[in-house]
Amino acid sequence: MADPDGTEVPRHSVHEDVYLVTAVAVPSDLDILPHFLGHYLDLGIAPENILVILNVSAGEDRELLTGASNVLEQFGVTDPEIWTGPYSSIEMWRRRRDLQAARVPADAWVLSADVDELHVYPDGIAPVLDEMETRGFDWLQGPMIDRLAADGRLRPVEPGTDIFAQFPLEGDLMCQISRRPELKDQGGTVKTMLCAGLLFPGLGGHGLDFDRSAEEAGRRAAELGLDPAKRAWPGHPRLRRIHDRRPANAAGENLAGHPRIKEPGERLAFPIHVAHFKWRAALARHMAERRASGLQTDAARAYTDLLLDLLEEGGDRIDPAHLARARGPRPPWRRHLQTLRRQAERRAGAFGPVRAWSQDYVRPAPGWSVRQLTFGSGHGVGHFHSYYDIPVMDRDCARVAAVRLPHPPRTPRPGDAVEVGVVDIGQGGFRSLGHSRAWSWQQGPMLQWVGGALVWNDRANGRFVARIRDPEGGARLLDRPVYAVDPAGEGALSLDFARLNALRPGYGYAGLDREADLSPAPGDDGLWHLDLGTGAARLVLSLQEAREVLERNLPPDERRTHRETPFVYWFNHCKFSPDGRRFTVKLRWRRRDGPWNGTMGVSLTCGVDGSAPRVVARGASHVMWLDDARLYFWNQRDGRVVLAPDAEATDPPAETALAPEVFGANVHLRHLAEDPDRMIFDTPYATDVSLAEFDRRTGETMPIAEFGGHRPPKGEYRCDLHPVPSPDGRRIIVTSLCDGGRQIYVLDRETGS
After folding, report:
1. In a domain, 460, yes or no
2. Domain count, the chain
3. GO MF terms on file (predicted)?
4. HEC-encoded secondary structure of 300-352
């Protein structure tokens, strides 16, 4: 065997406690299989510890399977698992995890590698294992570094020549051509190389399957008689870490969260890495076959499409100019890991604890899949969408309007800016389109789609404004901020976000001080209508008018209280009716320097022309229009979700309880546009948050997913899921803290569910 630098090295001694788990696609992997087996045998993996799945499609010649088995036997590898059927990454990784669970002892170590992935350990595996055991690390990752033939040709692999010599060019090709450079989707660029026997690689081998790992650790703990209620398991610290979904990474953090892992200068400096031999003959045919199978994930399909376009352009050759080359010698591997850990510690000090992906958990229900679309929690960068009642998905449900947050949890300061942009749901990652200095923790800068353009709020020229921009085109500026956009995309509602910030922190914007100018209920300010075409604004409902409507609805004693008490009033939470003719808005009040609670407010409705304002509910929360004549909301006085008409509130109210056996607490509830009897909801204000669907016709509640790690569960900095479903309910966008920071996730209903 030759080292990647071309020097000859001897075979390492056998490591009886290290296992290799892989899957071989027949016939596409047969050319490289002998090199793969020889490489890992030379690293010291015992033949009996190489666990193999042989996959052959039903239409392939069975003699190919016999040939693959013969190759394994030549290297002393026996008893492969045979998998006959169409290849898919999801099924392949499920089978690999099952094979690992069945054959690998709990106290052993696992190497995870595809057949075109050869691990590089400069001094062999033994010192790395010593480092892992001595320092108490549980898993090790490394970047994929591509190997290319000298002329860039996709050449066949020769059986008798060292494979590193056949593909001598070393550098980064995958990140240069397979992802748009503005996307921060670094998760797919690193691999789990070495992990404890009870840790199971995740989909693609890029991270860990924390749920499966915790499940197996719990089973092992039960066998040992360990009490899950105790904080420590003496003699079994690794088992406890895995059970609690917080395994220790040798780099100090999940490399998917490393801020520069996609940069060639950073990734190519890794002495421990995965040499990637994808770029060889028949690549185009194999990729086309997988694309045609229809079994790829959205991310894999997008990657395949980009790759096939490149291969079609170059024929059987990839221009080496595409390859970002390694420069200079790599540092010693121990020193490099120490550097990574110091960097992770510094980021943790600046932004809070660095946590592994899904250190808590995200657990989809059967029939649903979940994918993390944004990353960066490990280095203090979060992402979120604006709110559950805002159109954050475009019309094709292919992109999400998203906010990038580089700040630690604190009340926004006037100079704190966030980035606004889009996330491609198929590929993940974040594409920046601009910035905003007008945002809140709960609703961001009100970033939302208006047709094919995005609108968001900002601060400019000493006032709050709105910006409209087409992701592929120009931009416009409106003189007032937006809150809600009408269904036709022609008009918007606006209010005073500085007043809102002074009276209801967490929803307004910092930067314009209103503390000294808070008149109780001004007649020249309140809710405004904006023409999105011309920018013209007109006052629709002043705070003075709204207070008069309120007092008209109150009993005499409460009316007297409002007239004698120096309350200050404000608007929040406005929404258009489905036909765009009316809107609902929350009118709240409090003493200037006094406390307030959820019952100190009413929900009004009003015509967009200012006609027929009325109080429809008292103490209402999370108000939504079901249709043009009815609304539903959480009744805070009675503690139930109700359905009420758009009519003047009465005592007792003319409202109907909606599934009191289901909705026993305040929720974010939203019906499906294409089927209003189906409703998606979360259970906020808790550390562990559930997402579910309720069917009004049948009364049935169906779980969708559970998310852990929502700390803090309450207060200004909390992170609610704010679920936003597609019109048909087959796709849902949420923001969760389950990896230690705010990140965006997509849930997809699986085909046939």
Report:
1. no
2. 2
3. transferase activity
4. HHHHHHHHHHHHHHHCCECCHHHCEECCCCCCCHHHHHHHHHHHHHHHHHHHC
C-alpha closest to that of 706 among 368, 371, 363, 367: 363
How many of the other CB atoms lie within 10 Å of CB of 323?
21
State whether the Cα torsion 408-413-415-419 is positive or negative. Answer: positive
Residue 745 lies in a domain: no
Q: Give the span between the Cα atoms of 373 and 131, in whole angstroms.
A: 33
- For 599, residues 6+ apart whose C-beta sits below 8 A from its C-beta are 618, 619, 636, 637
Gap between the terminal Cα atoms of the chain: 50
User: Alpha helix (H) ranges present in 144-243?
Assistant: 163-166, 174-177, 210-224, 237-243
Q: Which of 263-272, 292-301, 589-598 has the lowest mean pLDDT?
A: 292-301
* Orientation of helix 556-564 relative to helix 543-553, angle to 10°: 150
List the one residue out of 322, 332, 368, 235 whose CA is nearest residue 692.
368
Cα–Cα distance list, 244 to 195, 233, 356, 361 (Å): 16, 12, 11, 10
Residue 410 burial class via C-beta count within 10 angstroms: exposed 0-12, middle 13-18, buried 19 and up = exposed
Task: Tell me the C-alpha distance between 112 and 393, whole Å.
Answer: 36
Q: Are 741 and 381 in contact (CB under 8 A)?
A: yes
Q: Is residue 748 part of a domain?
A: no
- The two tokens of residue 368 are 């649903």
Cβ–Cβ under 8 Å, residues 545 and 558: no
The Cβ-side half-sphere exposure at 145, using a 13 Å CA radius, reads 29
Structure tokens at 707: 């998310």
Q: Classify residue 405: in a domain, yes or no.
A: no
Range of the domain at 189: 18-350
pTM of the model: 0.58
C-alpha 691/C-alpha 669 separation (Å) is 10
Q: In one letter, which amino acid is 657?
A: A
Which residues, in sequence order, are CB contacts of 98 under 8 Å at separation 6+? none
Q: Which of 705, 712, 700 is nearest to 690 (CA)?
A: 705
| DSSP strand pairing (18-26 vs 50-56) | parallel
Here the CATH number for the domain that contains residue 601 is 2.130.10.10
The answer to whether 466 and 477 are in contact (CB under 8 A) is yes
Q: What is the mean pLDDT of residues 463-490?
A: 93
**Radius of gyration of the chain from Cα atoms?**
29
Separation of alpha carbons 222 and 207, rounded Å: 26
- Which residue bears the tokens 């049935």? 700
Q: What is the mean pLDDT of residues 284-301?
A: 64
Cα–Cα distance for residue pair 279/300, rounded to 1 Å: 17
Flag the least confident range among 72-81, 420-429, 508-517, 568-577. Answer: 508-517
Q: Which two tokens stand for residue 384?
A: 């979120």
- Which DSSP helix (H) or strand (E) runs through 180? none
Q: In this structure, what are the phi and psi dihedrals at residue 15, rounded to the nearest 5 degrees? A: -110, 105
One-letter amino acid for residue 415 of the chain: G
Q: CA 142: distance to chain centroid?
A: 22
Angle between the N-to-C axes of helices 298-314 and 283-293, in degrees from 0 to 180, rounded to the nearest 10? 150
Which of 291, 321, 350 terminates a domain? The answer is 350
Q: Which of 597, 630, 660 is the last residue of a domain?
A: 660
Relative orientation angle of helices 125-135 and 333-351, to the nearest 10 degrees: 30
Instruction: State whether residue 631 is helix, strand or coil.
Output: strand
| Phi, psi for residue 6 in degrees, rounded to 5 | 100, -10
pLDDT at 182: 34
